[in-house]
Amino acid sequence: MTDGLALNLTPLLPEIVLFLAALALLVVGAFKDKEGARIVTVLAVISLILAALLTLALSRTTVLAMGGHFVEDGFAAFFKMLIFLGAAGSLIVANGYMRDAGIERFEYPVLALFSTLGMSMMVSANSLLALYMALELTSLPLYVMAAFNRDTVRSSEAGLKYFILGALASGMLLYGCSLVYGFNGSLMFGELGRALSVDGRLPVGTVVGIVFILAGLAFKLGAVPFHMWTPDVYEGSPTPVSTFFASAPKIAAMGLLIRVLMQPFGHHVVEWQQVVILISVLSMLLGAFAAIGQTNIKRLMAYSSIGHIGYAFVGLSAGTEKGVVAVLVYMAIYVVMTVGTFACILKMRRDGRYIETIADLAGLSASRPMMAACFAIFMFSLAGIPPLAGFFGKLYVFMAAVDAGYLWLALFGALTSVVGAYYYLRIVKIIYFDDPAAAFDNTPHPALNAVSVIAAALILFFIVVPGPVTRAAGSAAASLVTPASGAANVPAPASRVTALR
């Protein structure tokens, strides 16, 4: 009995590490008092690194656990590595800001660990029940983190808005799960995939359930028309919290969405494809035009994230293995660009006060050339300017759409990308060509410089050696359909992963 239990818990080792670390750090922080926040943050980052190493070691095989509700495979491992990367980067850049803002408390990294634990469970969810429980574990700490600076009205308002709208989205998701279960008699993805692969058309109730599940997950992704919380929460939350929101939770929600659509409903792409395409078009459109008039850089990044989720949906809308690979590559590039950009935003500090206005970047190249160069790299990459990594991310998703017969969607994405490039290039123009504003303070936190430089280097490195990322994405997509998961085969077998290598 002991051996069987140990074997069953082996796939959950990364999650067990995060859970035990969060509990232990809660005690450490309580006893260390003022020094607790810094110590807990360092230990939290170490815990994330350890969880990432365990994930890497377990990624070679596909194993079920917890009665089949949890699956550890290459697909989950790929997304977990991105989640841990985004969470660790967010915690590393948070320390200095929290201390300067007078809100340095040990609870923040503990909340981040609990939320990351939920995200890790999300991408390994193999049933509708596990999906919902993991999503709630992810969301509850995020509500508190959004309102972490409780002494300011903006942060409290951001937390309240996110909580109310998040509760609504969770209700929609749960209703969708109940409809799918009610019309098909199973919660397990494998059983749903086998049952739905035999039947012809999906029951109407199942289709409605899929739409509600899509709506709930689209809220977590900040995709249109469920984006209303994103600009206000990004702007109102402390900047490190916005960094966390923009990276790890979006990666987890995208991983869960891909698994839900491609495993139990993989034989019925037509039933959900139109909804995904609609969300993609609306997100790209809003992301391209709504950010043009923004003056707050955090609010601009909120609309930017909406647009980038729309581009990722272009690859998902293809409903093919090549489309899945394209989305995986895109999200890997996205998390690096996002964390690097927010690391630069956190260096916008003048006279001891953090500022967020785009106009304050004027003439940055004269006073802080390294910061200006990193900012320019991230802006060019977010805009999709060749040959930076962001260009290849968009190229891959557009190629997947074209191969699936959606040339018009790829062209629409290219046009909105051109429109969106305006506000990215405007920032570069302000940095390099406008009359210099007052110089920013010298960054007293070396971690910010390290994260921004490393992220910029990774964006440039992808130009030379894209193989490791594309090969890992290809292996992850291939493992999405395995005998252990019992899922249906991914449609359109003619699409090949090697096309992206």
UniProtKB/TrEMBL annotation:
The keyword Iron does not apply. InterPro entries: NADH-Q_OxRdtase_suN/2, ND/Mrp_TM. Residues 125-419 form the NADH:quinone oxidoreductase/Mrp antiporter transmembrane domain. GO terms for molecular function: NADH dehydrogenase (quinone) (non-electrogenic) activity; NADH dehydrogenase (ubiquinone) activity; quinone binding. One of its GO terms (cellular component) is plasma membrane. It comes from the Bacteria. It is an enzyme of class 7 (translocase). One of its GO terms (biological process) is ATP synthesis coupled electron transport. Its EC number is 7.1.1.-. Keywords: Cell membrane, Membrane, NAD, Quinone, Translocase, Transmembrane, Transmembrane helix, Transport, Ubiquinone. It is a multi-pass membrane protein. It is found in: Cell membrane; Endomembrane system; Membrane. It catalyses: a quinone + NADH + 5 H(+)(in) = a quinol + NAD(+) + 4 H(+)(out). The chain crosses the membrane at residues 12-31, 38-57, 77-94, 106-123, 160-182, 202-223, 274-293, 300-318, 324-346, 372-393, 405-425, 446-465. NDH-1 shuttles electrons from NADH, via FMN and iron-sulfur (Fe-S) centers, to quinones in the respiratory chain. The immediate electron acceptor for the enzyme in this species is believed to be ubiquinone. Couples the redox reaction to proton translocation (for every two electrons transferred, four hydrogen ions are translocated across the cytoplasmic membrane), and thus conserves the redox energy in a proton gradient. Belongs to the complex I subunit 2 family. NDH-1 is composed of 14 different subunits. Subunits NuoA, H, J, K, L, M, N constitute the membrane sector of the complex. This is NADH-quinone oxidoreductase subunit N.
